């Protein structure tokens, strides 16, 4: 069997430019026909958006208190409490 360039045509190559652009225009018209400028977010999306409020991310008073305690050598870290919390978190994730 001989392979010639004419037998290597792809389905896209067999369509004309006019056919491709007509299909594209139909998709564009279908997209724009019922579109509005409003988007309705789900309750979960609204909650996630509210969590992005950067002003509530960091309690600067606590940060300053920790800085002062570290500088004064007064900060005591309870490693067993940290370990217990990590283990509890992993247990929750595995449930």
Strand content: under 5%
* Average pLDDT reading: 76
> Cα distance, first to last residue?
61 Å
Cα shape: elongated
Give an overview in words.
Belongs to the FlgM family. The chain is mostly helical. Helices cover 62% and strands 0% of the residues. The protein has helices at residues 11-14, 17-33, 43-51, 60-72, 79-94. The protein has 5 helices and no strands.
Short key terms for the protein model shown above:
95 residues; mainly alpha; 5 helices; 62% helix; transcription
Which SSEs are present, and which pair or pack?
Elements: H1 11-14, H2 17-33, H3 43-51, H4 60-72, H5 79-94
Task: Give the structure's gist in a few sentences.
By secondary structure, the protein is mainly α. It has five helices and no strands.
């Amino acid at each position: 069997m001989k392979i010639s360039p004419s037998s290597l045509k792809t389905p896209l190559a067999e369509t004309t430019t006019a056919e491709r652009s007509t299909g594209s225009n139909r998709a564009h018209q279908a997209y724009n026909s019922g579109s509005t400028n409003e988007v309705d977010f789900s309750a979960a999306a609204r909650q996630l958006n509210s969590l992005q409020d950067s002003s509530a991310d960091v309690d600067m008073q606590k940060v300053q208190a920790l800085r002062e305690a570290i500088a004064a050598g007064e900060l005591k870290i309870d490693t067993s409490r940290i370990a217990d919390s990590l283990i509890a978190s992993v247990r929750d994730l595995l449930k």
